[in-house]
Amino acid sequence: MIINWKVTVLIITGLLIIGFIAAGLYINTIGLNNVKLMYELNNNKGAILKMESEGEYLTKANHKSEKLKNKMNSEGWTFVNQEGAGYFFEKNGQEIIITTRQIWNRHFVVYKVTDNVLDLST
């Protein structure tokens, strides 16, 4: 049975509209700036990027602990302890706590620096 070409065009148009709506909802939920950060991280695997919220940094989820410890060590901080999602560091008698949480999907992690004491971006 031959499908009328008008029906075929209508079906393809409907699928395209549904696809654009789904993409728009995804971007609206996550935020356009965060989608840009995700794209940049896919091109630069080891990066830690500053987010719009104060004291929050986005990175890829793979090796998140080692990445954080190496960055803090390069800034002169000494790793003290980890309790759950909180990482404790010391430098010159000052203590800082950095918490981690996975967001959007399993591929991205946010580091939250308490009191925005330090810039983690690379």
Descriptive overview:
It is a single chain. The chain starts with a helix and ends in a 9-residue tail after the last strand. A 6-stranded antiparallel beta sheet has the order 1-2-6-5-4-3, with helices on both faces. The radius of gyration is 21 Å and the shape is elongated. By secondary structure, it is an alpha+beta fold. It contains 3 helices and 6 strands. It has helices at residues 5-30, 32-43, 64-74; strands at residues 48-50, 56-60, 78-83, 86-91, 94-103, 108-113. The chain is 40% helix and 30% strand. It has one domain.
Q: How many domains make up the 3D coordinates? A: 1
Q: Cα distance, first to last residue? A: 60 Å
Spans of at least 5 consecutive residues with low confidence: none
The helical percent reads: 40-55%
How many whole angstroms does the radius of gyration measure? 21 Å
Order of helices and strands: HHEEHEEEE
Structural class call reads: alpha+beta
